[in-house]
Amino acid sequence: MVKTLEKVDVVTVGVGWTGGIIGAECAKAGLKVRGLERGNKRGTADYLRVHDEFKYAIRYELMQDLSKETVTFRNNRKMRALPMRQMGSFLLGEGLGGAGTHWNGMTYRFLPYDLEIKSQTEKKYGKNKLSKEYTLQDWGITYGELEPYFDKFEKTIGLSGDNENPFMGERSSDYPTPPMKKTPILKKFENATKKLGYHPYMVPSANLSESYENPDGERIAACQYCGFCERFGCEYGAKSSPEITVVPTAMKTGNYDVRFHSNVTEVLKEGNKVTGVKFIDRQTGEEFIQPAEVVVLTSYVLNNAKLLMVSDIGEQYNPETGRGTLGKNYAYQIGPGSSGFFDEQMNVFMGAGALGMTIDDFNGDNFDHQELDFIHGASISLAQTGSRPILTNPVPPDVPVWGSEFKKASIENYSRTLSVFGQGASMPHKENFMSLDPDYKDAYGLPLLQITYNFTEQDRNLHKYITAKTESIMKEMGAKTVVPGAPLTDYDIVPYQSTHNTGGTIMGTDPKESVVNNYLQHWDADNLFVVGAGNFPHNSGYNPTGTVGALSYRCAEGIIKYSKNGGSLA
User: Fold this and answer.
1) What's the number of domains the chain is made of?
2) β-bridge partners, 83
3) In this structure, is residue 236 part of a structural domain?
4) N or C: which end of the chain has fewer CB within 10 A?
5) Does residue 325 register a pLDDT over 90?
6) Any idea what the CATH number is for the domain that residue 483 is in?
7) Which active-site residues does the annotation give?
8) 11 φ, ψ to 5°?
9) DSSP letter string, 23-87
10) Which is nearest to 141 in space by CA: 561, 535, 544, 534?
11) Does any domain span residue 570?
């Protein structure tokens, strides 16, 4: 028997960065908010013995349980999609904080060009720069309009950075805390890129350079450079995450609570309004209805799209006709790069998730694409994240990958190898999309989400171009052997590449081309909001979290406006 709970003003589905920000802002405004989190409660005290590479980095202790829910994948519509049985290309978070617990902390603002990419590309290069198969579109919001929300997110997390990037959008204030330490390894990258005429700057880091108290009164500690960030929680409370920032802020209001082990299976809709959500208690198997004035989908990209699909809200994208928007513009990223083997030893085991230097000389439209066979670009970085011994076994290409020779070379090169990598933008293509799988179901009887995706000619051309740039930087850094990355072939869901999935619930100004407006309010139900990287109409040359944070504050403002006045915010 389904039990109906007491109605709340706002319910969020998921309590990571997006759910935490929505919860904090709405609760501070006096709204009663409930967060439904299908994972467990956790925090800094649970990470005191987190330096276990096997448990967390190999066995994915903090990640989604794929035996209960996963995705199916295929490269094209002619293939049969098969389930992802183990974590591979991307790592799906679960539990309080979501992926904001195990992230690295690199926190960029997308470029002004990103938000108006279609109009700016056509203005400069004409309408035929990309073929019509690429479903490029503007976001329906400008950088200037989004800047105050970027600023607010950065102050909430105490972002550490410098102002050395000449390509960044205008800022209304400086970074809240200074940049992280510029280590000897980073200085190698800095000197080499400057000699090549580029403009290096410190990666904006949510691993804080010094202790900090944010505007809500939450304290964040200083990073210890232990080298256990990505795939791990922070035992020091020094990596800004939802559990130490926005969630405590929400709790202090008395207007917020979180219900754990609560897996939402449906958004309930009547007419042009949603009425709440249905969820299953994962521990007891009981089914509940949570009524709410406003429903906000704040889970991961893939889960937000799936929940709308199984709830039959919005029109599923059809690649045959181009009609529909739900599931459209799924995009990933490319990872060009080069490795370098050096004579001298370096302290590669030390580091932090966002300890690094970057150049944007080949990102966005910061360089001329007139004679190039692609648009956009990549940030190019060297990151000193902390090399751990199980997953780090670098050997030159002429060394066998097993046996005594491999072991000797692996030990020799462990502290003598560096990598320069690019985060390459991915443009949306009509054949890259999300849908429901017709065959496979999750533990609750719902269809699995199906991803249809492959790299495109745009991706391959950009990858080749950026790989050459990383190779020249590594040579300038003085490596005795430089190994550029292999050319792109077909996308495979293994091995790990990044967790930077975007699209599927894209934003815009036209219901025919987007799922939500620029307040992330659903076109088909004005009391339903959907927020996350799924709102991005394309992917960029950066990590998505800074832009997700900004959109979350924009969304929270919209929810508060809607709660006072009702109606569409478009």
Assistant:
1) 1
2) 72
3) yes
4) N
5) yes
6) 3.50.50.60
7) 500
8) -120, 130
9) HHHHHHTT--EEEE-SS----GGGGTT---HIIIIIS-TTB--TTT--EEEESSTTSPPEE--S-
10) 535
11) no
